[in-house]
Amino acid sequence: MELFLNRISDGLSNGATYALIAMALVMIFKATTLINFAQGEFAMFGGFIALVLATEQGIPMWGAVFGSMVITAVCAAGIERTLIRPFDPSDHLPLVIITLGLFLGINALAGIIWRFDPRAFPELFPSGNALTYGTATLSWYTVGTLVTIAVVSGGLTLLLNKTKIGLAFRAVSSNLESSELVGIKVGPTLQFGWAIAAAVGTLGVCVFVASPFRQLEPNVMVTGLIFAVSAAALGGLDSLGGAIVGGLAIGLVQSIAVPYLGIPSELSLLAAVVVLMLVLLFKPSGLFGTPQVERV
Predict the structure, then answer these.
(1) Integer angstrom CA distances of residue 12 from 48, 75, 122, 139, 241
(2) Does the residue 143 lie in any domain?
(3) Per-position b or e across 235-254, b if 16+ CB within 10 A of its CB
(4) Which 8-state DSSP code applies to residue 264?
């Protein structure tokens, strides 16, 4: 039982970080019906910026994370304006190729600047355990990740429902053509979505690598992005709440189902891929996504 509780704790902490990245993917998908394959690399680059701000500039850790979120948001907004907006949003092939190119380019750029040697990331939460039950423990890191995802999801909900730009974003994500007809500036609104997604993704990577068992390096999100995409697909690609549920579910599957089924830890990524395939096969809209309706 105590081992089981420990696995639940690990699954929740992993799932919360997957959920943060999944929420960033959902923000892009809601606006463009497109998966941004460069989302994980945006976030990874932001993690390196936070590390530089903290270790080389002496900025307090959470201040460095916030600063990197702002920087990556500005960069993502610039990329959307220069590389994404000139193309027809209804033609996905050029946009997919661009995001794949950004994935490779950002990864290579990070390797050139910081090399591929893993680096320890400063802790964001207190060390030690918040609760102890026999040999089972609930670390402050797990508590911190769950509190972070609650704050982010609450903030995004307020932003999308209580602000003018948030309401415009919801209108564009609901019907792009009708939004143009009522005077909403679609380009800047989509740019806002890219910026918010980059900021949330950066926070997710910073929390992910702040674990004592992980380190920051350019390939840190290559596999993490697959877990996040699986989480977003499971919860529903247009549902922020679904991204949270999907992320926690994927984290628990990775931490509990994989070892108890006797699957080697090296194949834990395969479990996420299997979940993704099952979702796409039996419920393409996800648990909380909006089913696509076509006129006939």
Answers:
(1) 25, 31, 21, 11, 16
(2) yes
(3) bbbbbbbbbbbbbbbbbbbb
(4) -
What is the model's pTM?
0.89
DSSP string of 58-108, one letter each residue: ---HHHHHHHHHHHHHHHHHHHIIIIITTS-TT-HHHHHHHHHHHHHHHHH
Residue 266 lies in a domain: no
By residue count, the chain amounts to: 296
CB neighbour list of residue 117: distance below 8 Å, 6 or more residues apart:
217
Contact 168, 184 (CB under 8 A): yes
Report d(CA 45, CA 114) in Å as an integer. 10
pLDDT for the residue 293: 53
pLDDT per position as a tens digit, 112-171? 999 888 999 998 998 888 777 777 778 888 889 999 999 999 999 899 888 988 888 888
Q: Spell out the long-range contacts of 159-168 with Cβ–Cβ below 8 A and sequence spacing 24 or more.
A: 159/196, 165/189, 165/192
- Calculate the alpha carbon distances from 271 to 9, 16, 78 in Å: 19, 18, 36
User: Is residue 267 assigned to a domain?
Assistant: no
List C-alpha distances in Å: 55 to 113, 122, 123, 249, 267.
16, 9, 12, 34, 35
Asked if the structure places residue 296 within a domain, the reply is no
Six-digit token string for 146: 């769950």
Residue-by-residue DSSP string for 205-255 = HHHHHTSTT--B-TTHHHHHHHHHHHHHHHH-TT-HHHHHHHHHHHHHIII
Please report, as a single letter, which amino acid is at residue 211: S
Contact of 51 with 119, CB cutoff 8 Å:
yes
Mean pLDDT of 238-250: 88
What domain range is 64 assigned to? 15-221
The count of structural domains within the chain is: 1
